[in-house]
């Protein structure tokens, strides 16, 4: 942080009121996450309220850990006893106060701040500009895509006095969000990357989306934009004085006229200024999106005064690497966190935080390279050491000369290798067993080679799960219900195919209240992998009673007979067990019917050891409007049944009825809890809020071979694929054994290769499928998308007459799941 603050200053900045005990120390760190605190005595903890639990809940524990300063909501009643032990600043809204502190800190930074927004490319432009500028300057930048209402303040707190330029990214998803971001960032130079065409729920239309984003630049001295985006440039030119604008275009008349020449995997970008002087840059990309992003980068670097040779040197090192933080299966049950594209402290902090949120493993290992161009090494590595210290790692492997300084801080846990080559010589994958390994390094160290050595080798099909999208969808549903309504999340069937342990773990950190699985075994597996949330088991069997007890699982009880058996079991063992009662109001699958109620009440009285944790019913047609009348009659019947059951209870069980579709259609029946399923995974089955959810999973595979076939050739079993005029086909490494449905055969399905449609030709085989690529310049090794952002699950399901649920849950466990934060 740039400027340490006293409590008096904070009161002034936030307009809050200080109470509690006074401490003379200055605040040099700000944290919103109770697990992320390094110097407790100089940290201000900001208790945010969100979809997640109220941050204030952690305050008593944090005081134990030595934190003395808290920013809290004025409505939060400070528990007695705490006032003597800490300082509290009470404000109307802690998020606004956090932003006010950020705006204040930003003002302390006298060097240039670049603000970047747009629909696509903003993170990559920020990262690449950071790389290019770091040839000449020390650069602060938002970690990953920390561009939100809370991400931006955290990015600003990461700016240090020694930084010479700061790059801050701003992202908005609805009207009204940019004003606070703009107020905090106060950019001098702006970059508007572009505007996507996708409809977004939070905006009325494309123009209103552009206008919202442009607010970031309202006080900017200079704004860089591409004139060839007609709508964007019209909106910009209407609002900004020409003297503040730097335009570029493929056509003459802009500040920079840009022409490109592509040759053998390289592109020459030639910029001509209005005075007809030209300069030429060479870049290792040919795709148009990368060229557009790089043009923004070059013009921004020139505007900031960087010289041309330094810019070219920076461009030479750009690689289209995956910037995402990914979690993937490693050798011998290890888990790898792949962060092979990180080069600063802010990024390291994000990665360590992600590490600390993973399920417990035998030990935690960090593989880390030198941090390049990050200012004074003496200082940087002591900061790195402090950061690492707070995450209690078991082993630290440093690669490079500078990082060797960590030896002084961790003499017993630190190993050093001069180069990646040298590390690889000594790295034996068999020495790793059930470990959690974070691999993070600067680009030139090529740590992808280390990841390659340590990751589990599986064939070319992967299911990628976007954890940010999962969070987004969870929060969307959380916003549809009252803050006090609990969220149970269905992670049955391997979390709808997404991978139960990782998704349950992520839900745990997001603040879900309950999980539900179909069978006891699924619950046992979650417990064994360190999941602590309460778990409801939908379909327990008598044989699993011991497991329920041993692993603290809560069975659904659905018949008098089952109730009696379980009751006798707990009486014999002299234990108590929490159970859930399923009321059948029309599903006619499992559950108590109306005529069972007298018997049920007797049973409840006879077996008080069985504690009724909840009472629920399940709607049969919540997704479809045509069943509305039936759904409402189910809900009414449920209310009657629950009232009757409650007459024999002297405590209140949780009452719940709504699945994903129900949450959208009948929010007035949310009661104490809702049960979120398919919606979390990005499918909005009612069709009312299609644009509000983000697709969570992308199924990808690779091309194994490309063949050119003569006229009349047939493809695959039974000669079902016909090429009367000949053509070109590609064989993909996915088949029905991976869960690629055989009903997609013979043109019913298609995949995307280079964003172009390649129809299935012939029948889907067990492990392979052939697609027609006659019109696509495809080669072996290229990626093929089965579904994801550009092919919706709903569309695919429609094509073969099924539902998205089936497609999701059919993906075989042999397909590698990879999780990422973008
Ligand atoms: C699977 C399931 C849900 C979740 O349904 P979605 O349609 O996926 O939201 C809710 N309740 C019960 C009892 C379920 O079995």
From TrEMBL:
Active site per database record: 492 (proton acceptor), 717 (proton acceptor)
GO CC terms: cytosol
Keywords tagged on the record: Isomerase, Ligase, Pyridoxal phosphate
Family annotation (InterPro entries): Ala_racemase, Ala_racemase/Decarboxylase_C, Ala_racemase_C, Ala_racemase_N, Mur-like_cat_sf, Mur_ligase_C_dom_sf, Mur_ligase_cen, Mur_ligase_N
Catalytic reactions on record: L-alanine = D-alanine
Pfam families named in the record: Ala_racemase_C, Ala_racemase_N, Mur_ligase, Mur_ligase_M
Keyword Magnesium attributed: no
Name this protein carries in UniProt: Alanine racemase
């Amino acid at each position: 942080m740039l400027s340490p603050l006293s409590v008096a200053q904070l009161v002034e900045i936030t307009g809050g009121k200080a109470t509690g005990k006074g401490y003379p120390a200055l605040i040099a760190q700000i944290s919103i996450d109770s697990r992320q605190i390094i110097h407790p005595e100089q940290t201000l903890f900001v208790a945010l309220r969100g979809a997640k639990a109220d941050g204030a809940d952690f305050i008593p524990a944090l005081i134990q850990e030595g934190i003395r300063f808290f920013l809290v909501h004025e409505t939060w009643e400070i528990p007695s006893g705490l006032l003597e032990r800490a300082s509290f600043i009470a404000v109307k809204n802690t998020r606004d106060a956090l932003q006010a502190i950020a705006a204040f800190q930003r003002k302390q930074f006298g060097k240039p701040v670049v603000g970047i927004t747009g629909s696509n490319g903003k993170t990559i432009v920020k990262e690449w500009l950071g790389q290019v500028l770091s040839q000449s300057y020390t650069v602060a930048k938002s970690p990953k895509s920390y561009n939100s209402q809370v991400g931006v303040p955290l990015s600003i707190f990461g700016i240090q006095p020694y930084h010479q330029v700061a790059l801050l990214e701003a992202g908005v998803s609805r009207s009204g969000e940019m004003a606070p971001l703009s107020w905090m960032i106060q950019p001098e130079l702006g970059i508007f990357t572009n505007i996507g065409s996708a409809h977004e729920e939070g905006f009325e239309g494309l123009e209103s989306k552009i206008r919202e984003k442009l607010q970031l630049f309202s006080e900017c001295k200079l704004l860089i934009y591409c004139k060839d985006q007609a709508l964007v440039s019209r909106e910009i030119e209407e609002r900004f004085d020409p003297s503040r604008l730097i335009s570029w275009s493929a056509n003459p008349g802009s500040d920079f006229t840009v022409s490109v020449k592509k040759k053998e995997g390289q592109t020459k970008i030639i910029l001509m200024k209005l005075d007809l002087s030209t300069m030429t840059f060479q870049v290792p990309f040919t795709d148009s999106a990368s060229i557009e992003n790089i043009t923004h980068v070059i013009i921004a670097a020139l505007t900031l005064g960087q010289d041309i040779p330094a810019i070219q040197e920076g461009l030479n090192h750009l690689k289209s690497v995956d910037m995402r933080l990914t979690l993937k299966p490693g050798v011998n049950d290890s888990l790898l966190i792949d962060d092979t594209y990180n080069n600063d402290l802010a990024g390291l902090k994000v990665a360590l935080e992600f590490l600390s949120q993973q399920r417990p493993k035998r030990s935690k290992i960090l593989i880390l390279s030198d941090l390049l161009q990050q200012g004074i090494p003496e200082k940087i590595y002591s900061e790195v050491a402090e950061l690492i210290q707070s995450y209690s790692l078991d082993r630290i492997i440093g690669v490079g000369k500078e990082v060797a300084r960590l030896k002084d801080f961790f003499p017993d846990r630190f190993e050093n290798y001069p180069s990646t080559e040298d590390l690889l010589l000594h790295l034996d994958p068999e020495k790793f067993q059930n470990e959690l390994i974070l691999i993070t390094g600067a680009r030139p160290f090529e740590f992808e080679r280390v990841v390659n050595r340590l990751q589990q080798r599986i064939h070319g099909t992967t299911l990628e799960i976007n954890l940010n999208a999962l969070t987004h969808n969870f929060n969307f549903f959380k916003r549809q219900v009252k803050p006090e309504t609990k969220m149970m999340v269905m992670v049955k069937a391997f979390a709808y195919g997404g991978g139960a342990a990782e998704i349950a773990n992520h839900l745990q950190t997001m603040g879900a209240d309950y999980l539900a699985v179909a069978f006891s075994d699924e619950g046992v597996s979650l417990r064994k992998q360190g999941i602590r949330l309460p778990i409801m088991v939908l379909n327990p069997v008598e044989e699993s009673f011991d497991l329920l007890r041993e692993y603290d699982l809560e069975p659904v009880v659905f018949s008098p007979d089952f109730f009696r058996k379980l009751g006798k079991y707990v009486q014999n063992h002299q234990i108590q067990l929490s159970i859930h009662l399923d009321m059948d109001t029309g599903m006619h699958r499992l559950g108590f019917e109306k005529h069972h109620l007298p018997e049920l009440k007797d049973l409840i009285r006879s077996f008080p050891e069985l504690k009724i944790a909840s009472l629920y019913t399940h709607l049969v047609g919540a997704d479809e409007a045509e069943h509305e009348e039936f759904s409402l009659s189910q809900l009414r019947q449920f209310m009657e049944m629950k009232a009757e059951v409650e007459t024999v209870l002297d405590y209140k069980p949780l009452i719940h009825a709504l699945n994903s579709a129900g949450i959208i259609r009948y929010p007035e029946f949310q009661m104490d809890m809702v049960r979120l399923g398919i919606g979390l995974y990005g499918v909005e089955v009612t069709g009312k809020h299609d644009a509000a959810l983000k697709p969570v999973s992308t199924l990808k595979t690779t091309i194994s071979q490309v063949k050119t076939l003569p006229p009349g050739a047939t493809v695959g079993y039974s000669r079902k694929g016909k090429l009367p005029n000949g053509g070109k086909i590609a064989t993909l490494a996915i088949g029905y054994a991976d869960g690629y449905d055989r009903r997609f055969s013979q043109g019913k399905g298609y995949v995307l290769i280079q964003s172009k449609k390649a129809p299935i030709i012939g029948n889907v085989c067990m492990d392979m499928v052939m697609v027609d690529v006659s019109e696509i310049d495809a080669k072996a090794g290229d990626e093929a998308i089965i579904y994801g952002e550009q092919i919706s699950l709903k569309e695919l399901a429609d094509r073969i007459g099924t539902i998205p649920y089936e497609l999701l849950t059919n993906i075989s466990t042999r397909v590698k799941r990879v999780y990422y934060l973008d």
